[in-house]
Amino acid sequence: MSGDNDFVVVANRLPVDLTRNADGSESWTPSPGGLVAALTPVLSANEGCWVGWPGTPDASPEPFHTEDGVLLHPVSLTEADYRDFYEGFSNATLWPLYHDLIVSPVYDRSWWESYRDVNHRFALEVDKVAAEGATVWVQDYQLQLVPGILRQIRPDLTIGFFLHIPFPGPDLFRQLPWREEIVRGLLGADLLGFHLESNAANFLDLLRHVSIPVEGTARTREVQAFATGGDGRRVGVAAYPISIDPSSLGHSDEAAVAQRRGELGDPATVLLGVDRLDYTKGILQRLTAFEELLESGALDAQDVAFVQVATPSRERLEEYRRARSEVEEAVGRINGRFGAIGRPVVHYLHQALPKRELRHYYSAADVMVVTPFKDGMNLVAKEYVACHPDGSGSLVLSEFAGAAQELTQANLCNPFDSESVKAAILQAIQGLAAHPDVMAQRMSVMYEQVTTHDVDAWANAFLSSLRDARR
Ligand code: ADQ
Prior knowledge:
By secondary structure, the chain is an alpha/beta fold.
């Protein structure tokens, strides 16, 4: 079967969420992510279609066109699919395995069967909408079998795949009982994209380990490596570091910044953390480092405020519930020890903020603290930098975030070592006071990097390699 769309994006989620209202009616809320912003122009220029889950179990809405002329084609997931495919195999097996076992992955055969089944259904939906010879771009770890299934049923398609999270070293990946199926699934693509050269190199090492022929070393898009798919096809492998759409952040002004700082009690220094509440992000460890700085007297609670915004995430999973309760316990303890009535030292929000509001906090923060144990890229670090065109502010960044490869002028730290996190926070605060010109120069270098390597550049680079891959 084939449809009439020349360009199809397939992702676990559609770029809009279906919400069921209290009166039983349904409405769509856009999710304004960078990926959506980057892909919408390509999709609307190419009679494009986005295939994905509408965000509510057991919902089967009809396909519809957005104002930009993009066809949204929903894939229905049952409550059981959500539990086994999404929460189970995607987020309790693959997510911890690909993030270097920060918690232990659970290997459960019934979750794997659900993953395989849901990947099949996604591929069949793509088959319905993709025109003869169309380009299909598959996104992320939830859909790693889709390229292989599509290759079988639709050899006419050009298929790209991009992994948004790290790819682990071969010794870790080999733990996965279904490792061969996943590799075969990925090799159905014409081009496999990773954030970093090291992720691509891990994938190529794995292939060598299982005697799949590989030519070259994956580098940037100019220097791809090639693996050999099951049918002898060449599969390009390269790194395409994702970025942000700086214009989507809007503008902040002095009044908005002054208002946010005033609400915090006008401290000398505002520190900020913004994350999905995920155990990979190192939120507890950064709060503990902050607490130790207060305890030692290196920081004075009168002079500082720490704002931590944490978006609720995957809340039915045990490890996420534990991460949340540990973070909330630490916030309470730190405020109990160092706050005063009406003057907490940590301001904690467990909610998603509108981008406009987030922008004001990014602009108001003197020091952004980004301390994941492992992160594919980390867009928050790039968003903060993009909100400081005048060179103000300072970034504390984990060496284990993909973004550290590009944002080399940040105060880099090792999140596994609390001394290193503390030293980076102090360096940032003291640097702003003692060497403002040097700090401004460093922020400006990073601003230039983020604004010249934006999400459009990322999408164009990947799609141009994908066109070359099928020539
Ligand atoms: P995430 O793990 O979700 O992404 P990140 O890259 O930081 O992490 O992106 C989070 C996005 O959500 C940012 O755009 C941020 O502004 C927004 N966000 C976070 N907390 C928010 C809040 N409280 N309110 C509103 N918005 C909030 C995965 C990978 C990353 C990779 C991206 C893109 O884990 O490593 O960078 O995909 O490939």
